[in-house]
Design brief:
heterotrimer; A alpha+beta; B alpha+beta; C alpha/beta; A: alpha+beta; Phosphorylase Kinase, domain 1; 2 domains; five-stranded antiparallel β-sheet; two-stranded antiparallel sheet; 8 helices; 9 strands; 15% strand; C: alpha/beta; five-stranded mixed β-sheet; 10 helices; 41% helix
């Protein structure tokens, strides 16, 4: 199937040399070296990477009515682009918006992350696997602790701004190099395709819970510590902002969600 | 003074039907006259005239052009001509008259960006030369190279704050041109959505 | 871990026979199946359906069914239908290994009228009782009939809308409705249009939709893996009141919108669990347009859609017997005092002993 979809996006964006990075049920993500509209002598401003760009493409879904499909594609693409701009305005680290073609379901955004020494992309998942290979002292060392706390902090930033990510996994969290010489990283969240504005404790607790589950399944050996550090980081921003009651609410609800799973109970 | 005035040619991938040639003039003395001729639809004045104080970077200008030719391609234009569509795309206002008044030229404008959008095959050296000569005759001002620096020199931060509803002074955006440009580019892409 | 399905088999026993009793909504269904000993997932050990009898209570056009009317209907019919099922199955009562009944979810009064009958039969005939989750019944029957081994299940009926995938001995709910069920949405729209409830309101909407073709924009409300339908119903009711649109087009657009939402969350769940099989169960699963849309989506994923026809899609007793017999074979035994029905009985509460 993906072949036809890729042919379709190549028809919309000819001569861009798109490389497929990931494919979900809703969207395909490509990377390309060509900017959508700037010539080589003009560099886009305020981006960490001016040589690679992300193209996120929501393909049309042939099972739904064409009019309905266009309505959905357009509103979701525009919605995600607006959210990226909002995050930028809030100074939350996430890909910055570069261009938008809502009718065709295409968002151009900043490429965040780098290649790890083993050649893999610096998602949290790959990075944890990378350091886990080096042995336990690295896997649960100070750097791992710092990074996991940053992750928690980043999620708290989102939540305190009444945004929930909706699909937190260790693949949707990216390490960004802060220094060329030292191992110093910041953390960015990516893929806001399922995000929404919400100030409900339930939604925030579920957001964290989904990530906890993802860490347990991809990094079972150390997930307990990772999750502990994650919550420490999350908690620390709430303390900084003097939102202790809000933190307690999330903490309490998270405990309840862990017991019952993601779903609320409902009528049969 | 040398005869050729500086220009910048703009084209983008995907939407290749149109190209633009752009000029920047500062200390323009006859804005009132230009505006009157525009209203009369005088053929010599068939350009997009933008008040340059709202434009901070080439990237912003390019994003406006990209948005314009994309809307044309998709049959989504909100105004009648490509030139007014460019002004509409770059401005944060929904109402076309607001766009033209606040982003287009007005009698007290000082620096203006002049953009001519034409079908790609029309744009050749001879065409550019004709435009250069025409502009020299209709604009009483000083023509500049269009660069981020020259644009930022002209930018009116207070006007940006007011028009785009941005807080720039005494925030992290102050003197941070890359971030200001990023904001304006995003606003352009999200225009009308 | 190898499961042993035959700890309860007596020496020389070749098969099990289960009587299933379903009455959670407006249909009473009694079914009898026979299942050979040995691993039931082996295609050679498929269940044999000995009888599948059903009677439906239909409300007059423009009205929904009331629980007490449905319960009365079930009480009036249960003895006759059980007798008919047994005579059609050509079995002796002492051959029955277990009496399976729907323990929930569903409407309280109808559930209770059937469980009373089940308890009575169990005490009278001294046959063990097995309580069955209605949704699990649909899933197990769907797997049995279609041969789908580990599909993502879309369960769509008048009372339920869930996307389910199996993991670690539970049928886990990946997505579900946050308010009303898809069948309920269709039924209530049929009431607004005052079209007949026979054979079912959904069927009549489907026939009208086939004559429509103009797509009218309706709210599309997928929230992550979940969906919401009450807003759509309200919106289309208002459109209907204004009488500017043909009812055929309204039916068409409602189906297009609701089914697109269902297919979308099913696709998400498939991507999530990395499966390319879909099993559609529940009354709305009979809808050909839903099946068609699901097929288009699944074709793109090189997968397969499994759907059953109205004998099994629509509530029936056989499905209760099927899930019940598996539970029975794994040692299940429901004491009378534990046989209380529950209107809320979540699919993921059931410990699925019979799968690895």
């Amino acid at each position: 199937m993906s072949k036809e979809i890729i042919e379709r996006v190549e028809k919309i964006l000819p001569d861009f040399d798109l490389k497929l990075v990931s494919q979900g049920a809703e969207a395909l993500v490509f990377v390309t070296e060509k900017h959508p509209y700037l010539p080589k002598d003009i560099k886009p401003a305020g981006l960490t990477n001016v040589n690679n760009f992300i193209v996120k493409y929501r393909p049309r879904k042939p099972y739904r009515h064409e009019k309905l499909d266009l309505q959905i594609t357009k509103s979701r693409t525009a919605g995600e682009a607006k959210l990226l701009y909002k995050l930028d305005s809030l100074n939350i680290k996430a890909p910055k918006l570069i261009a938008l073609d809502a009718i065709n379901g295409i968002i151009w955004m900043e490429f965040l992350g780098f290649r790890l020494p083993n050649g893999n992309f610096s998602s949290l998942k790959n990075w944890l696997w990378f350091i886990e290979k080096k042995g336990e002292s690295e896997a649960i060392g100070q750097l791992a602790k710092d990074v996991m706390r940053l992750v928690g902090y980043a999620i708290a930033e989102l939540h305190l701004n009444e945004i929930v990510h909706g699909d937190l996994t260790s693949s949707n969290i990216v390490l960004v190099k802060e220094s060329e010489t030292e191992e110093k990283y910041s953390v960015a969240l990516i893929d806001f395709g399922l995000s929404s504005y919400s100030n409900l404790v339930e939604d925030k607790a579920v957001d964290i819970y989904v990530l906890e589950r993802a860490l347990v399944s991809t990094h079972p050996q150390f997930s307990e510590l990772y999750n502990e550090w994650l919550l420490e980081g999350y908690h620390s921003l709430y303390s900084e902002k003097k939102k202790i009651n809000a933190w307690r609410d999330v903490e309490r609800r998270l405990a309840a969600v862990r017991l019952r799973g993601r779903k609320r109970s409902m009528l049969g | 003074m040398s005869s050729a005035i500086p220009f910048r040619e703009i084209e983008v991938p995907v939407y290749k039907k149109y190209k633009a040639v752009c000029f920047l003039a500062s200390n323009v003395k006859n804005c009132q006259e230009i505006k009157e001729n525009l209203i009369k639809a005088n053929k010599d004045y068939d350009y997009g005239f933008l008040n340059a104080k709202n434009v901070v970077s080439l990237e912003q200008l390019y994003s406006g052009f990209y948005k314009t030719v994309m809307s044309q391609h998709d049959g989504n234009m909100k105004s009648r001509t490509l030139h007014t569509e460019l002004i509409y795309s770059l401005s944060p206002f929904k109402n076309i008259m607001d766009c033209l008044n606040k982003f287009g030229i007005s009698k007290d404008s000082n620096s203006i960006l002049i953009v001519k959008i034409v079908e790609s095959e029309t744009l050749n050296n001879y065409f550019i030369k004709t435009q250069q000569e025409n502009l020299k005759s209709i604009i009483d001002g000083e023509f500049l190279e269009i660069t981020d620096d020259s644009l930022q020199e002209i930018t009116d931060i207070k006007a940006l704050e007011k028009n785009y509803k941005l807080k720039i002074r005494s925030t992290k955006l102050e003197n941070n041109w890359p971030s200001i440009s990023r904001n304006l580019v995003s606003i352009t892409h999200l225009k009308g959505l | 871990m190898k499961l042993d399905f035959d700890t309860r088999a007596k020496p020389g026993q070749k098969w099990y026979i289960a009587l299933g009793m379903e009455g959670s909504a407006n249909k009473i269904g009694i079914g009898i199946i026979k299942q050979p000993i040995g691993d039931p997932s082996n295609p050679e050990n498929r269940s044999i359906i000995l009888s599948n009898i059903r009677d439906t209570y239909n409300a007059p056009p423009g009205q929904g069914f009331m629980p007490r009317d449905v319960a009365r209907h079930h009480r009036n019919w249960v003895v006759r239908i059980v007798a008919k099922a047994i005579s059609e199955a050509k079995i002796e009562i002492n051959e029955i290994n277990c009496i399976c009944f729907t323990q929930g979810p569903g409407m309280g009064a109808p559930l209770q009228s059937v469980v009373i009958a089940a308890r009575t039969l169990s005490l009278m005939w001294k046959i063990p009782l097995i309580g069955v989750n209605h949704c699990v019944g649909h899933i197990e029957m769907g797997r049995e009939v279609t041969g789908a081994n580990n599909p993502v299940v879309l369960y769509v009926s008048g009372g339920n809308t869930q996307v389910i995938a199996y993991s670690r001995q539970r049928y886990r709910i990946f997505g579900e409705t946050l308010d009303i069920a898809v069948g309920n949405c269709l039924d209530r729209f049929a009431r607004v249009l005052k079209i007949s409830n026979s054979p079912s309101p959904g069927y009549n909407i489907e026939q009208l939709a086939k004559k429509g073709g103009k797509f009218i924009e309706l709210p599309y409300t997928v929230k992550g893996m979940d969906l919401s339908m009450s807003g759509i119903l309200e919106f289309i009711e208002e459109l209907t009141r204004r009488q500017n649109e043909k009812i055929e087009d309204l039916c068409y657009s409602l189906q297009e919108c609701l089914f697109a939402m269902l297919v979308e969350i099913t696709e998400r769940a498939m991507a999530h669990v990395n499966s390319n099989q879909v099993l559609i169960v529940g009354g709305v699963g009979c809808n050909e347009r839903l099946q068609e849309m699901m097929n288009i989506m699944v074709k793109d994923r090189n997968g397969y859609v499994y759907a059953t026809d109205e004998r099994f899609c629509i509530d029936n007793g056989v499905m209760i017997a099927q899930a019940g017999i598996l539970e029975y074979r794994m040692g299940g035994n429901c004491q009378i005092e534990d046989s209380v029905c529950s209107q809320k009985f979540r699919t993921d509460e059931v410990f699925v002993k019979w799968r690895e």
